[in-house]
Design goal:
By secondary structure, the chain is α/β, with parallel strands linked by helices. Helix content is 34%, strand content 25%. α6 (163-174) links the parallel β8 (155-159) and β9.
Amino acid sequence: MKKIKTDICVIGGGSGGLSVASGAVQMGARVVLIEKGKMGGDCLNAGCVPSKALLHAAKEGMGYADAMEHAQNTIATIAPHDSQERFESLGCTVIREHARFTSPKTVEAGDTEITARRFVIATGSRAFVPPIDGLAEVPYLTNESLWALREAPAHLLILGAGPIGMEMAQAHRRLGCEVTVIEAATALSREDPEAAAVVISAVKAEGVKIIENDKVVRVAGTQGDITLDLESGGRITGSHLLVATGRVANSENLALEKGEINRNRGGVKVDARLRTSNRRAYAIGDVVSGNLQFTHVAGYQAGVVIRSLLFGLPAKASSHHIPHATYTTPELAQVGLSEADARETYGDKLEVVRAEVSGNDRAIATNRAGDGFIKVMVVKGRPVGVTIVGPDAGELISFWGLALSANLKMSQVAGMIAPYPTLAELNKRAAGAYFTPRLFDNPKVKTVVKLVQRLLP
């Protein structure tokens, strides 16, 4: 067996693993990168990238086959940046095999044993397939297999009304498919209810049928003729079935016990420094138990562990400033605490201010003014959470991620000048809403102004 000694061994070639590998090797560390599947991981090949490309294609009015080709072309354009060739050119040793720990200091990948000073587990997640009677015998789709289709489903059934389910529902409806979404709880249940209601209403208005608070208890049928039996007694028949019921960490086939690394049903257990029970091993991204499962979270956590791996700094990860977005039309984005969580945490100290998309001149000019809004949760003059629903919410939320990361005051936000006319004015308008009652409805301010006017020459 071939043996390699290295400084850092990264297991997983998705967003987080690639960020660690590229950063570490370019700063002088010896790096071995192990990936058994496609370089770029789920996000590039089956997740964020093709789904956003499909949403764009649907909005542009492409046909189904052309839309799917656009998604594949998008992947192909980005893939060289994540390729084995690029990382080998940077100086990484890339091994395309499955990795298994053989001791706290070693892993085995194919015919190679790697001994490393530090390990980073970044094996990501996969689609969770619920244990529903008959589902295993039916040709269902997941976000991984969906992209092989070239003919539009006549009637797409979607299990799950989270971000993936809602995005794919809207995209496929716009591509000419009949779409029914079944959700055991409520649609977009993890989002602010007021903002979620705006998205749900818009998706329904386009013709997507959404069934909430009802479970699928049995699945039967063959390709092109699939039947779902519901707990309520209802029955739905469609041509294709997409399972979008969440994600599960890829942590069970790494022989973690031999690496003295603890895991639970949610994935690998880590501390605030993202270090596992084996002090030599770290874990980042979707594989981490209880982690926010977003590509940009893995990238952020890669930066945190690089500080520990390369410089020995006691860097810790936090999540209060990490935004996320659902890319339906309208988009929905959140950073920090939701209104409900902020009220539970701060009680009467919380102040909620908002601005409506309908009052934004750019939204009006581009025919995108609707029921959207920005809502800012403020405590002692500083934002602690922001919800945005409306056009380009995913772009607008980045500003508030910076505000929370830098602990900015609302006065500093209000001092920002946005070009006119832009949607970014919504951010400033929300900050202005915080100061409006303090300035315009304040008797003391009016008294001072009158006094100054009498005294000024």
